[in-house]
From TrEMBL:
SUPFAM superfamilies: ClpP/crotonase. Transmembrane segments: none annotated. InterPro entries: ClpP/crotonase-like_dom_sf (IPR029045), Enoyl-CoA_hyd/isom_CS (IPR018376), Enoyl-CoA_hydra/iso (IPR001753), Enoyl-CoA_hydra_C (IPR014748). One of its GO terms (biological process) is fatty acid beta-oxidation. Pfam families: ECH_1 (PF00378). Keywords: Lyase. GO terms for molecular function: hydro-lyase activity. This is Putative enoyl-CoA hydratase I. Belongs to the enoyl-CoA hydratase/isomerase family. PROSITE patterns: ENOYL_COA_HYDRATASE (PS00166).
Length: 256
């Protein structure tokens, strides 16, 4: 049983809630390890089709745990197990939706940005305040933030340590929707369940192809897309999807 997470099943989706309320869900090594393990379980379980990750109303996560960080020097950082945990979290192959209320700062903002879809409560605040601590983002904050919000705003957030509101995050493209805070998780679960009803192989390959758009040049990305599209042409779910359309019924996808 994890110590720092609460995991709930909602049909073919899982809701993972970060649970260190006394420290605004600050990310300890233990929490990151438990999250990496839980996501691994979700990845291995064919009945889990999508995952929602959330925190509390006050904080999604206020960053890396600074008390733990205070104990790490350069040597400690070099073989920091968190690096491996982040790696595993970022490689989660199924759709991951972040439902963000309150503070998403530092590693908390980086964790939210690992999600494929971000839904934010009106009171959410996104920021990379590491510069105030004499450091800089170390878990993707410079790279993913710039890709998400563009150069000028990313520079302002990282160099001046300024946070942005949910509204600004929506305008900048960091999140796709904002909701009333009490509805954020419900909305994220609704999207997860909608995804969970689609053909799993198509969802997986579509996610992979979309992520390639950030890493590859256009020609390579298009090559990957064509290859993935062709692979799906050989699946039973593709036949089922088209047959269901013709027979005017709901498709029943099996994941093969
Ligand atoms: N770590 C530990 N405890 C924290 C915390 C944190 N990041 N943030 C908040 N807390 C604790 C507070 O100490 C306080 O505990 P008590 O004093 O009650 O025991 C409790 O949570 C409530 O916080 P506040 O009293 O401060 O609440 P306020 O509403 O007044 O302020 C705040 C909320 C979020 C504005 C403030 O707590 C704050 O500024 N927190 C620190 C935010 C921050 O600087 N975050 C960035 C941390 S650096 C890497 C991976 C990740 C990272 C780096 C490398 N690798 C894999 C290489 C990430 C780095 C970071 O995130």
């Amino acid at each position: 049983m994890p110590n720092t997470l609460v995991v709930q099943a909602h049909q073919a989706t899982r809701l993972i809630t970060l649970h260190r309320p006394h420290a605004l869900n600050a990310l300890t090594t233990e929490l990151l390890g438990e999250l990496a393990d839980e996501l691994q379980r979700c990845a291995d379980d064919p009945d889990v089709r999508a995952v929602v990750i959330t925190g509390s109303r006050k904080a999604f996560a206020a960053g890396a745990d600074l008390n733990e960080m205070a104990e790490r020097d350069l040597v400690g950082m070099l073989d920091d197990p968190r690096q491996g945990y982040w790696q595993r979290i970022t490689q989660f192959p199924k759709p991951l939706i972040a439902a963000v209320n309150g503070y998403a700062l530092g590693g908390g903002c980086e964790l939210a940005m690992h999600a494929d879809i971000l839904i934010a409560g009106e009171d959410a605040q996104f920021g990379q305040p590491e510069i105030n601590l004499g450091i800089m983002p170390g878990a993707g904050g410079t790279q993913r933030l710039l890709r998400a919000v563009g150069k000028s705003l990313a520079m302002q957030m990282v160099l001046a340590g300024e946070s942005i509101s949910a509204r600004r995050a929506l305008d900048a493209g960091l999140v796709s929707e904002i909701t009333q805070p009490e509805l954020t998780v419900e909305r994220a679960l609704q999207i997860a369940q909608r995804i969970a009803a689609k053909a799993p192989l198509a969802v997986r390959l579509a996610k992979e192809a979309l992520l390639k758009a950030q890493d590859l040049d256009l020609a390579s990305g298009l090559r990957f897309e064509r290859h993935a599209f062709t692979l799906l042409a050989g699946t039973a779910d593709r036949d089922e999807g088209i047959r269901a359309f013709q027979e005017k019924r709901q498709a029943d996808f099996k994941g093969c």
